[in-house]
Hints:
Layout: E1 5-10, E2 13-17, E3 28-30, E4 36-38, E5 40-42, H1 44-47, E6 53-59, E7 74-82, E8 84-89, E9 92-97, E10 101-104, E11 110-113, E12 120-128
Amino acid sequence: MKEIKKIATAENFTAVSVGKLNELDDYVLELTPEIKIPGKVFCGASLRTTGSEFSFQMFQPKTETGFLHTHKSHEELYFFLSGTGEFQVDGKVFPISEGSVVRVSPAGKRSVRNNGTMPLIMLCIQYQENTFMKEDAADGNILNEPVKW
Length: 149
């Protein structure tokens, strides 16, 4: 089974690599000994994230999540990086493809499937809902110092 590689780390950052996206199938997420999800890797712990979790997942052609799920307090963003498929929320099914982005509130009953002929690759970010406020958009500080490479 493939593992996340650490690139660099220091007090204020961590950098990792999951490898080539077309090799995501080398990962297997084991939820329990009976439930194993091929092609999925969570990255938050490796990066020491404190405000969100995220995962990459590859669905081979004609495969799907296989279950509906909801969350208690986490909203999710799904970014589709390649391939085609269908997404389902609360019984509504719609097409997704490279460049599609889907937001689902915690209570939304969701699932995804690849009904295409190529691998479907997605990035999913989950975070506590209602924590980003309008004023947070101006949180960045541009520093008056040169960039040195």
